[in-house]
Specification:
The chain has 105 residues and is mainly α. It is 55% helix and 10% strand. Strand 1 and strand 2 form a beta hairpin.
Length: 105
Amino acid sequence: MKLLNDKFISSWSLIVDLESCLNSTSISENDKVICKRPLDAYKFPVMSYIMSADGKLIHQLNANDLLEMSNGQMDHEDLANGIYEDSVSMIYDKFLKEAIQKSFN
């Protein structure tokens, strides 16, 4: 979570709010494009997105995919050494690091 706090601005949005943004007459067309990006990439039930300051979608991770990936990661060396509390934390940290790398490409 240190990486999240140090390198990212964390927020959340409800699907209904993003949809409302698309239908609003008081929202600029540019902001509507930014609202549409996570909607287009949404996969039930919960998504984590990394977006650039200009609203481009850099990286994404579905909660179910995260849990599925964590099932096979329990014997990882970093878990055994106590670097991470659990495999979900380890995979989420990897997700954030990948987003940082992608943001420079």
